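Tokens in:
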């Protein structure tokens, strides 16, 4: 008997978290993707020092959840696994575009749009922007891997024509000097304009570094 793997598209309810007050005073819209083993609200704590009248932050949550300790522990989320990876990439890309379009349609005309991705969330951002046409002003990758299997120079979004900020902690055990060299090679291969910025810290989002990047590259 031959066993076949087949697929069917179904509706799914996705969750996201937000911080700030979306309205005519909003100057900066952040679309922030969390890493694996996190939930959407966790990454928002890194933005809580921003003025909620000027900054509106939306954090989508990965579509797959699991218990952090097998059958117990905190419930956490992930963006993709190695099983049916291409289908998961398609699903989260559609989800992110739908949510992003829903929010950006409500923004004031002059509002800056910033896409931020931490760890697996950063890799997810690159895959999403490769597949879908998305308009944004700033792209920030935090301690993430840039996908090796796609040509980002030919992405549907303007990844190769906008400056990208890549930031990571000096003590990040996932990013050895060899891994950083690998990232530099990927940047050159994909013809990306990337500024690398280090900060003191491990594999976590640094609130201070987010503020530093905002003040140096984004603030009007």
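Residues out:
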């Amino acid at each position: 008997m031959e066993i076949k793997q087949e697929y069917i598209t179904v509706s799914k309810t996705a969750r996201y978290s937000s911080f700030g007050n979306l309205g005519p005073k909003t100057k900066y819209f952040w679309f922030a993707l969390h890493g694996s083993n996190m939930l959407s609200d966790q990454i928002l704590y890194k933005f809580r020092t921003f003025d909620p009248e000027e900054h509106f932050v939306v954090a989508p949550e990965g579509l797959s959840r699991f218990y952090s300790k097998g059958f117990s522990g905190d419930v956490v989320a992930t963006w993709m696994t190695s099983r049916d990876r291409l289908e998961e990439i398609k699903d989260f890309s559609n989800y992110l575009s739908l949510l992003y379009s829903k929010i950006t349609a409500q923004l004031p005309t002059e509002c800056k749009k910033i896409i931020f991705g931490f760890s697996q969330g950063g890799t997810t951002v690159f895959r999403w922007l490769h597949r879908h046409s998305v308009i944004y002003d700033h792209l920030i990758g935090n301690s993430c891997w840039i996908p090796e299997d796609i040509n980002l120079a030919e992405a549907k979004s303007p990844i190769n024509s906008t400056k990208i900020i890549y930031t990571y902690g000096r003590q990040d055990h996932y990013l050895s000097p060899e891994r950083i060299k690998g990232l530099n090679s990927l940047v050159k291969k994909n013809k990306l304009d990337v500024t690398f910025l280090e900060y003191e810290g491990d594999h976590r989002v640094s609130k201070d570094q987010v503020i530093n990047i905002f003040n140096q590259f984004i603030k009007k």
